[in-house]
Amino acid sequence: MAKSLPSYSLVLEMENARSVDLDEVSIGLTALLREISAVSSLGFAKPRVVISHGGDDADTLLLRSNIAAEASQLEQVTDLIFSASPGGRYYDLKNNGIPATDGDIVIFTDSDTVVEPGWLSAMLDPFQDPATVAVNGYTYLYYDDFMSRTFALIWFFPMAQMDTRFASKRAINANNVAFRRSWITNHPFPENNGFKVSCTLLMRELDRDGHKLVSANARVYHYPPRGWQFFRWRALVTGRDADRKFRVLKSSHRGRRIAKSLSHWLTMTWRTTRRVIGHARQTGMPVWQIPLSLLVGLAFYSLAFWGQFGLALGFIGDEVEVLPDFAGG
Asked: Which of the four CATH numbers 3.10.20.310, 3.60.15.10, 3.90.550.10, 3.60.10.10 does domain 8-222 have?
């Protein structure tokens, strides 16, 4: 680490805390506490941690009480702040936390991710270079059963190991990314009706400003989504988000959007087949489950196609995507 160390703040989004149990959130907070203590021993100043949530003031009191019970030392090593944004969606909560930060660097993470040892040091180290404006960490999906293994194989996150080529293609991980505060304050996550579109739009702003997204081996795992209700909803919204991205970044012409939905379905069908066959054994999946996993993956992206095709064709309106009560991130 350089002798002149930057100050940093963290924004922890708590929307997804509704869909993971308190024990899992506790694991994430304990890991975060470990990382903050580790870099503090290197000379970094005590950071401000902003817990940004979608409730009201009453929820703030409950949240503070729960966090104190699960990670009591967090308030000793950080300046812990709670910031409410009633009804705020995922990116709203991230933007809501920015004004409360005070560090030179602002790091974003989520309530349903767990940081690995060395994560915080790896996130901060690239900022020794004054030209560095944004640092992207390595997020992968945790798995412990058939469905979570399948999600890990077909998801937009890379695998935990031996997947660096796919990881290098990742855009901004909103659950594991850091920016210089001077930049992100003036470039918050853009507004969009989509569920997970704003990362892509922010990446475009970063490129337009002439800044490179620096990849760091700052590793976190994300808890897996659960349940068939989530499977159906997330597949359809993945497709709708694909159309939204294409419409903003490429063309709003209906014919081109429809054609893109078809080509995207073919691309994702091939990618899913390749990844399930190529990485299934890495997850510990038995050989007999691999064909079933492939079918589930193909079903997911077939549903995604209908979501993308339907929005492109105008069968459905471009409504604001809201996280259902049964769904995760």
From this structure: 3.90.550.10
